[in-house]
Design a protein that fits this description.
This is UDP-glucuronate 4-epimerase. The chain has 465 residues and is of the alpha/beta class. The chain has 14 helices and 15 strands. The strands form 5 sheets. Strands 3-2-1-4-5-6-13 form a 7-stranded parallel beta sheet, with helices on both faces. A two-stranded parallel ribbon has the order 7-10. A two-stranded parallel ribbon has the order 8-15.
Length: 465
C-alpha cells in the first residue's frame, strides 16, 4: 500500500462522506491506481536521497591537513583539489596574453617548434619543457596543480620553468574556452599532451578522476587541435600499462592491448582508440608514447623508488610485493633523460596534420612507440641499489601483491622507436638512481622540509609512468 492509501479505508462502503465529496473520492481512487503518481513519488524520493548524499559527501581533500600523505587518508580523497578551485586564479587579460606570446616565441630558426605542453608542472612535462626551451623552441605550459601528490613539488618545478623563461598557464585541459583562447593567441605547431591522472592504485579510490583527465581531457585537447587553423601535430603520453595481461615478452607495439589490468590502463587504451578516430576523421597527426616506469630527479612521489627512498631514510619498513609462488616483480625502469630524448624525437619527426578548420584533406600520420630501457630489473634489486647510494639498510617486508591492477613485470621492445626516432636509452638503473638520490637529498635538505613529511601520497604505483 502506498503512503497515499493511508487516508482511505480498505472497505469503502463504511466510509461516510457528504455527497459533494463523492466526485473527489472517485478522482482520488483514480489517482491512486494511476502509475504517474507512484513514478513522481519515487522520482522525488530518489532525488532527495541523491541530494542528501551530495551534501554529506566529501567535496575535496580539504578536510585533511595540507600535505597529509598517509594511506589512511586515501579513502577520503575522492575529489582532487586544484589551484583554480581553491583560489581566485583566473586567466586572460593583456598582461597574461603578453606572457603567453613571449613564452611561445621561437629562438631557433628556421626549424623551431612552438609547443603547448600539458601537464607541464608534472615530472616528464617539466623536463621536456626545459629541454625544448633550451634549444630555442617556443614553449607554453598548462597545468591545473591538483593535489594528487604534494603540490609544493609542482610549484617548485613551476619556479624552475619560470626561471628558464617558460610560462606555465594555470588551468584545466577540460576548459574549452581556455584552450580556444590559447590557440587563438598562438599558432602552435605541436601539442605535447602529458597531462593525465597517473597511478594504478588510486583508481580504486577515485575512478572518476581517470575518466575526467585521461578520456574527457584527451578529447578536449583533440577537439581544440582539430578546430585550430593550422592544426598542430599531437604527441601524447600513453603507457606501458596498456599491455595489461599480455604475456609475450618483450612487449611490442604489435602485441594485443585489449586486456587491461587496471582502470588506469583502460583509460590509456581508450585514449589510443580515440586518437585513431581523430586521426581518421579530422586528419590530425598523432603519435602515442608508451612510457615504461619513468624515474629520476624531480620525479613523482607516488612511485616506488621515490617513497622507498623516503621511508628508508626515515627508518620505516618498506613493503616489497611478490607474485604467486614467490614470483619476482620487475620493471623496465627508464631514466628521465632517455624519455626526454624520445619525446623530442617524436616531436621532430611528427608530420603535419592534414586537416583545416576541422576538415580532413588527406591521410595523416598515426604512430605509437614504446619508450623503455629494455632491461627489466627486480624491485628487490632496486632496493639494494638505493641502500648502497643512501648508505642505509632498508627494513623490508615482503608481501603478496594485492589485486589492485598492478602487473608482475614490464619489458619494452624498442626496436621501432630505434628505427623511426633514433631512440637509444643510455642510462642504467644504478647510474640513474645515483642521480636521483643526489637530487632528493639536495632538494629536501635545501627546502627545509623534514624528509619524513615529504615525498609520498599514499597511492603508490610501481608500474605506470
Amino acid at each position: 500500500m502506498s503512503h497515499m492509501d493511508a487516508g482511505v479505508p480498505s472497505t469503502p462502503g463504511k466510509f461516510k462522506s457528504e455527497k459533494p465529496h463523492h466526485h473527489h473520492q472517485r478522482l482520488l481512487l483514480r489517482w491512486q491506481h494511476s502509475p504517474l503518481p507512484k513514478f513522481l513519488f519515487w522520482s522525488l524520493f530518489a532525488g532527495a536521497v541523491l541530494f542528501s548524499l551530495f551534501l554529506i559527501s566529501p567535496r575535496s581533500s580539504s578536510s585533511s591537513p595540507a600535505g597529509h600523505t598517509h594511506s589512511s587518508s586515501v579513502t577520503e580523497r575522492r575529489f582532487l583539489r586544484t589551484s583554480s578551485s581553491s583560489s581566485s586564479a583566473t586567466w586572460g587579460g593583456r598582461e597574461w596574453e603578453k606572457r603567453v606570446r613571449s613564452s611561445a616565441r621561437v629562438r631557433r630558426h628556421p626549424f623551431g617548434l612552438t609547443v603547448l605542453v600539458t601537464g607541464a608542472a608534472g615530472f616528464v612535462g617539466t623536463h621536456v619543457s626545459n629541454a625544448l626551451h633550451r634549444r630555442g623552441d617556443g614553449v607554453v605550459g598548462l597545468d591545473n596543480f591538483n593535489d594528487y601528490y604534494d603540490p609544493s613539488l609542482k610549484r617548485a618545478r613551476q619556479a624552475l620553468l619560470s626561471h628558464s623563461g617558460v610560462f606555465l598557464v594555470e588551468g584545466d585541459i577540460n576548459d574549452g574556452p581556455l584552450l580556444r583562447k590559447l590557440f587563438d593567441i598562438v599558432a602552435f605547431t605541436h601539442v605535447l599532451h602529458l597531462a593525465a591522472q597517473a597511478g594504478v592504485r588510486y583508481a580504486m579510490v577515485n575512478p572518476g578522476s581517470y575518466v575526467h583527465s585521461n578520456v574527457a581531457g584527451l578529447v578536449s585537447i583533440l577537439e581544440a587541435a582539430r578546430s585550430a587553423n593550422p592544426q598542430p601535430a599531437i604527441v601524447w603520453a600513453s603507457s606501458s600499462s596498456v599491455y595489461g595481461l599480455n604475456t609475450q615478452v618483450p612487449f611490442s607495439e604489435s602485441h594485443r592491448t585489449d586486456r587491461p589490468a587496471s582502470l588506469y590502463a583502460a583509460t590509456k587504451k581508450a585514449g589510443e582508440e580515440i586518437a585513431h578516430v581523430y586521426n581518421h576523421i579530422y586528419g590530425l597527426s598523432i603519435t602515442g608514447l608508451r612510457f615504461f616506469t619513468v624515474y629520476g630527479p624531480w620525479g613523482r612521489p607516488d612511485m616506488a623508488y621515490f617513497f622507498f627512498t623516503r621511508d628508508i631514510l626515515a627508518g620505516k619498513p618498506i613493503t616489497i610485493f611478490e607474485g604467486p609462488d614467490h614470483a619476482t616483480v620487475a620493471r623496465d625502469f627508464t631514466f628521465i633523460d632517455d624519455i626526454v630524448q624520445g619525446c623530442i624525437a617524436s616531436l621532430d619527426t611528427a608530420q603535419k596534420s592534414t586537416g583545416s578548420g576541422g576538415t580532413k584533406k588527406g591521410p595523416a600520420q598515426l604512430r605509437v612507440f614504446n619508450l623503455g630501457n629494455t632491461s627489466p630489473v627486480p624491485v628487490v634489486e632496486l632496493v639494494s641499489i638505493l641502500e648502497r647510494h643512501l648508505k642505509v639498510k632498508a627494513k623490508k617486508k615482503v608481501v603478496k601483491m594485492p589485486r589492485n591492477g598492478d602487473v608482475l613485470f614490464t619489458h619494452a621492445n624498442i626496436s621501432l622507436a630505434k628505427k623511426e626516432l633514433g631512440y637509444r636509452p643510455t642510462t642504467n638503473l644504478n647510474t640513474g638512481l645515483k642521480r636521483f638520490v643526489k637530487w632528493y637529498l639536495d632538494y629536501y635538505s635545501s627546502s627545509g622540509s623534514h624528509l619524513a613529511k615529504k615525498g609520498r601520497s599514499g597511492h603508490g604505483s610501481s608500474s605506470s609512468s
